[in-house]
Please model this.
Amino acid sequence: MPHSASAKKRLRQNVHRRERNRATKSAIKTHVRTLLAHLLAGDIAAAREQFRVVAKKADQAASAHTIHPNRAARIKSRLSTRILSASRGGSTPATAAAPRKAGGKKTAGNSKG
Model:
């Protein structure tokens, strides 16, 4: 719990910024899910329009330092590759639309104990 006035103000600012950052990240994820749904439905034109929205939101978040610029580039690259593949007749597997979970398999070299 902050005691000084400046620490109290910093706490208020941090809470406000955290809420704004979380909202921005959530909006990007929502737009990405919408784009992937369009791809699964086979609607390439709608997916391309949604890609423009996703790219804009990702770039805005990167310029505001909400996400890293490389993350914005990675999001755009992965989605553009999927759109290009789908437009050329490639199939997008249903499992590809599911969001990936963090973490992975634990191996002997991974343990810290």
About this structure: The first helix runs from residue 5 to 41.
